[in-house]
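re: the backbone from monday

yeah here it is again, tokenized this time
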């Protein structure tokens, strides 16, 4: 693959977030990826993961923290919460598989929903709306009972 202008279309095909191995499979070498990243032509959001230039801010923050949006953060992403409702829990909620790990640049107050099935229920940007609703019901009960 020649040049660095083709990253965004390829990454968009993966939902705005692509793994290093997927970019390698698309034809770029390790050297291409290194140069593109070091010269600002490729947006690395985590080690081994890259974002398209139009990835929404909330999904970018979630992946920097470790994975896709979950719970109320996913509901806000889908436009299923009014702005005043999402302000009730301003923490970033993400979903990680059982063997996942939180990113080193994760924000304070991060809420992690640990579930391999939930993690893969939606897109790379957010868990499915049905899973997010279920998580929000469970998460709200835990929060209100504390």
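seq for it, each position gets an aa:
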């Amino acid at each position: 693959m020649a040049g660095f202008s083709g990253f965004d279309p390829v990454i968009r095909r993966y939902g705005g977030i692509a793994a290093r191995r997927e970019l390698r499979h698309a034809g770029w070498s390790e050297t291409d990826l290194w140069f593109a990243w070091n010269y600002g032509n490729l947006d690395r959001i985590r080690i081994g993961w890259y974002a398209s230039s139009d990835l929404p801010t909330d999904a970018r923050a979630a992946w920097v923290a470790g994975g896709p949006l979950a719970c109320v953060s996913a509901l806000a992403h889908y436009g299923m919460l009014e702005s005043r409702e999402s302000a009730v829990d301003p923490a970033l909620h993400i979903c990680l598989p059982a063997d996942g790990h939180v990113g080193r640049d994760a924000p304070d107050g991060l809420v992690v929903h640990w579930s391999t099935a939930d993690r893969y229920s939606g897109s790379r940007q957010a868990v499915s709306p049905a899973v997010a609703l279920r998580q929000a019901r469970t998460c709200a009960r835990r929060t209100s009972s504390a």
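The beta strands are 17-19, 43-46, 49-51, 93-96, 111-114. The chain has two domains: 7-51, 57-145.
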